[in-house]
Write a structure and sequence with these properties.
Layout: H1 9-16, H2 26-51, H3 56-72, H4 75-86, E1 98-101, H5 103-107, H6 110-114, H7 117-123, E2 127-130, E3 134-135, E4 149-153, H8 160-172, E5 176-181, E6 185-187, H9 191-197, E7 209-210, H10 214-220, E8 235-237, E9 243-245, E10 252-254, H11 260-274, E11 280-283, H12 301-317, E12 322-325, H13 331-334, E13 345-347, H14 349-361, H15 365-373, E14 382-386, H16 399-404, H17 409-420, E15 432-437, E16 442-446, H18 449-453, H19 462-475, E17 479-483, H20 516-520, H21 528-544, E18 555-556, E19 564-570, E20 582-588, E21 594-596, E22 607-609, E23 616-618, E24 623-625, E25 630-634
Parallel strand pairs: 1-2, 1-17, 2-5, 5-11, 11-12, 12-13, 13-14, 14-17
Antiparallel strand pairs: 3-4, 6-10, 7-9, 8-9, 15-16, 18-19, 19-20, 20-25, 21-24, 22-23
Helix pairs in contact: 2-3, 2-12, 3-11, 3-12, 11-12, 14-15, 14-19, 19-21
Bound molecules: alpha-D-glucopyranose (2 copies).
Length: 635
């Protein structure tokens, strides 16, 4: 084939036949061809937009890989593909509940994790994100985010076969498996990385390597520093004097997606993972995957085209796989990744940050504004709402949004940072600064939910704050994601300070080992662990039986009280086009009781059942909310 000539779909389809194995049943092959016919035009158009028509030879290889991967796909996974095609909104259910943990910290290894499945069922989890568990450099691997092989599990945790077995067992227990797809970079120990720096012509262009500082300097003029504590700028120097792009740690080398062979290689790794039984891949660091001189090299249009192209490849060979985007960036950029054809799921970093903002300020204006203007996302997609992750909390609200409310964004971030690291008078929080950059004024916060909410400081309201924060993620719509251990109020772990591989990464303070003593006392409500656990269990149970909490439809409710957040979650529409029932939510972020006036509540009935307490609440003459009190009322 002439490499500059574009290949029409029918010639690709003919070429595909060579990939069919004699053992593949007709129906199986036909389903692949049907998906090829439906998806190929989109995939090819994306490929042309990214790489130009000259890359069709590489595209053909991508498609042939997909055909092979489909034929390798185990029958039970093909059955899941078929059933999810019939129920594509399966992840929108109010029964969805996520949990996240590190395999080693939470359970030792994959075998240990299996033994926790009964507990996951007790909690009602339907989604389990296992933090990176692949082969990685021994000393420091950024918590596994520096991958040396996508096809090998870290031997300390187990084997790929065990992971596939675990995926099956989780599925039998109604739990979808989520793992990271760390596709922006590999570790410096990855085979591709070794070959690239050794000058292997097949791999040289897999990374961004420059002989001197000219190009690095040019790029760094416009690129933000992500881990300035590790190295300034975005490049690190190799032993031979050359420079290589490393957005995160010096041992995490960015892949060069301008090379279509990188796309093909990573698509292969993704499909390999999908065939182990992974249901959802968390697309790590999506904002950084495309670079262009003179730009911030974040969230460029090609980053979206690449994600869509990966998505189209999945539709061919692992059709039920979902993508969750990890874009912890400006809210205008976060939503750009959310689309049925791109990432169906996305972290909701804005809601996360603003929950903490409201706990600090005791005011809800920014959070209410975000629910009003930034909550709505396209049909067929969902937020993943969380109180905190394994990472830092960054104050990613928009300065323009803040200005509308009379808040100066940078001053306010400074306040929040000092509040959460306990440098502000009377702060209840015990967070630790992360990547404190005096040069740019940038700083983020590390810590566990309980320590940030006041439990470490033995603040009386800590338990109520923890419950309030979770009540928001459980009721705004989307998949709530619990950081496992937070449900028993785990505290910061300062042990990282004496581990040289972790000492300069304060995120470790928020990644404690399985808090065995707290779990042991979780049934005793007189302990902190028990009080948090009982309260959260209740909220999670109520969510499970509240169909109004399915999907993402949310209507703001003006409470006319600066401390009280209000919103309505309409249920299924009845015959007349109006919802048959609605759950009205009120959440008080103040330490004092708060009133909602009878005028404010005038659209509501005289009384309504509160789903959390199970008691009927009178709405005339107005309502008094307890300090940090929450009502979920069905009207
Ligand atoms: C993501 C991860 C973070 C990691 C980074 C680089 O942001 O959540 O932990 O450091 O990607 O892979
Ligand atoms: C993420 C974010 C950054 C975050 C880091 C992980 O991709 O862009 O803000 O702090 O990586 O810690």
């Amino acid at each position: 084939m002439n490499p500059t000539e574009s290949l029409p779909g029918d010639r690709m389809r003919a070429a595909l036949l060579s990939a069919r194995r004699s053992t593949t049943p007709d129906a199986d092959w036909q389903s692949f061809e049907a998906r090829f016919d439906a998806e190929f035009p989109r995939l090819q158009s994306l490929f042309h937009q990214i790489y130009g028509p000259g890359a069709d030879a590489e595209l053909l290889l991508v498609v042939l890989d997909a055909a092979a991967s489909w034929q390798d796909r185990p029958a039970d996974l093909k059955a899941i593909d078929a059933s999810r095609a019939m129920a594509p909104d399966w992840f929108q259910s109010n029964r969805m509940l996520g949990g996240v943990c590190y395999v080693d910290l939470y359970a030792g290894n994959l075998e240990g994790l299996r033994s926790r499945i009964p507990y996951f069922r007790e909690l009602g989890l339907t989604y389990l994100h296992l933090m990176p568990l692949f082969l990685a450099p021994e000393e420091n691997s950024d918590g596994g985010y520096a991958v040396s092989s996508y096809r090998d599990v870290d031997p300390a945790l187990g084997t790929m076969d065990e992971l596939a077995g675990l995926a099956r067992e989780l599925r039998d227990n109604g739990i979808a498996l989520v793992v990271d797809f760390i596709f922006n970079h590999t570790s410096n120990e990855h085979e591709w990385a070794r070959k690239a720096i050794a000058g292997d012509p097949d791999f040289e262009d897999f990374y961004w390597i420059y002989p001197d500082r000219e190009m690095p300097d040019a790029y760094e003029r416009t690129v933000r520093e992500i881990f300035p504590d590790d190295h300034p700028g975005s490049f690190v120097q190799l032993d031979d004097g050359r420079w290589i792009w490393a957005t995160f740690h010096s041992f995490q080398w960015d892949l060069n997606y301008r090379n279509p062979r990188v796309f093909r290689a990573m698509a292969g790794e993704m499909l390999y993972l999908a065939n182990q039984g992974v249901d959802i891949v968390r697309m790590d660091a999506v904002a950084f995957i495309w670079k262009r001189l003179g730009t911030s090299c974040e969230s460029l249009p090609e980053a979206h085209l690449l994600l869509q192209a990966f998505n189209a490849v999945c539709r061919l060979a692992a059709p039920s796989l979902l993508f969750k985007s990890e874009a912890i960036v400006h809210p205008d950029e976060v939503v750009q990744y959310i689309d049925r054809g791109e990432c169906q799921l996305s972290y909701n970093p804005l809601q996360m940050a603003l929950i903490w903002n409201s706990l600090a300020t005791r005011e809800v204006s920014l959070l209410a504004q975000a629910l009003e203007h930034r909550h709505h996302i396209p049909e067929g997609t969902a937020w993943v709402n969380y109180v905190r992750s394994h990472d830092d909390i960054g104050w990613t609200f928009s300065d323009e949004d803040a200005a509308e409310l009379g808040i100066n964004g940078s001053d306010h971030r400074r306040f929040l940072n000092s509040f959460y690291v306990n440098r502000f008078p009377d702060s209840f929080a015990r967070g630790v600064p992360f990547q404190d950059n005096p040069r740019t004024g940038d700083c983020r916060i590390s810590g566990t939910t309980a320590s940030l909410a006041g439990l470490e400081a033995q603040d009386d309201a800590a338990v109520a704050r923890i419950l309030l924060a979770h009540s928001i993620i459980l009721s705004t719509g989307g998949i709530p994601l619990l950081y496992l251990g937070d449900e028993v109020g785990q505290l910061n772990d300062y042990g990282y300070e004496s581990d040289p591989a972790k000492a300069d990464d304060s995120r470790w303070v928020g990644r404690p080992a399985y808090p065995a003593d707290r779990y042991a006392s979780r049934q005793d409500p007189t302990t902190d662990a028990g009080a948090v656990f009982a309260g959260l269990r209740r909220l999670m149970e109520v969510r499970r039986r509240t169909p109004e909490f399915a999907g993402g439809r949310l209507v703001p409710f003006r409470t006319n009280n600066p401390h009280v957040l209000g919103y309505q979650r309409p249920g299924l529409l009845g015959a007349l086009g109006a919802p048959e029932s609605t759950v009205v939510v009120f959440a008080n972020f103040a330490e004092t009781p708060q009133e909602l006036s009878v005028e404010t509540l005038s659209g509501l009935p005289e009384s309504a059942p509160d789903l959390i307490s199970g008691e009927r609440t009178l709405l005339r003459p107005g309502v008094t909310l307890e300090p940090h009190g929450v009502l979920w009322m069905r009207v």
